[in-house]
Every structure is written in structure tokens, then in C-alpha cells.
Amino acid sequence: MITVLVHPYRYKNGGLEYLLIKRKRVAYNWQGVTGSLERNETTEECAIRELFEETGYIPAFITSINMPADFYEGTEGKGEIWKGHYNGDSYIKLQKDTLFVARIDQKKDPVLNPEEHTDWIWCKYGKAYEIIKWDLEKRFLRYINNMLITGEIKEN
Fold this sequence. Notes:
The chain has 156 residues and is of the alpha+beta class. It has one domain: Nucleoside Triphosphate Pyrophosphohydrolase (Alpha-Beta Complex). It contains three helices and eight strands; from the N terminus they run ββββαββββαα. Strands 1, 2, 3, 4, 5, 6, 7 and 8 form an eight-stranded mixed sheet that branches. The longest helix has 16 residues.
């Protein structure tokens, strides 16, 4: 299964903030935007579509991040929660996430789909790292935060 993980960010009062959303199905975890590819869709098209569907935002800038992200579902705290969700009654064996960062310049609040998400928060890195529960998302957030503050991500 190929999915995308998008971490929206913005600049506010001279600093970086990240948008995290809380899934209805996994209410204990905050995360970035996630979703699965549709037929004949590129990963970037999927990332832009999922970002819009899940938040109402259109990114001013989006780029994929070259970071290995193959992982087993069971090691990321999802396990039984996701059984049957994507793949009938079997567990997902391997999921390949393509990772993205997306700069949001719009000033409006995100618009969530209440069937899928229950809450959202814009927060600084320290708070975001604290409330994210899954290792993959923590590693990705740490990686992109370092790339953004050091200028390794070249925004257009």
C-alpha cells in the first residue's frame, strides 16, 4: 500500500508552527495529513488532494522529503485498530509512506471532515513533538524541522 504523510507548516511571529490533526479512529494520536493514492495519481497529487480534503488548505509550497519510511503497522502503535480498515480482515503487512512538507500561507482555520477528524492545533515544534505518539511521525517532524530551520528545504 502506498500512502502519503504531509506535515503542513507555517511561519507565524517569526517562528515555525506545524498543523496537527486528530483522527477520529485513533483519537489518542495527533498527526499530519495522511491518505492513500487513487488510481493514476502521483504521490504529489495525492498529497495536495489529501491536504485539501482533510484541512481545506491549498499549499503555497509543497515538496517531498527523501527519508526512508517503510514500516510495519504493528510497530507504529496501529495494529488492531487498522485491521480490516484498508485490507479486509487481514493486517497491513507493509506500508510505504511518501513524506511531504507543505507551507500554508492561508490565514483561515482548517476545515476538518467530522467523519474523519475530531480536532486540530497549530503549534511550535516542541509541543508538536510532545503530543505526537508514533515514532515515525516524531522522526519525520524532527527531520523536517531541522531541514526548515537550517534552510535545507528550498522554498520557492
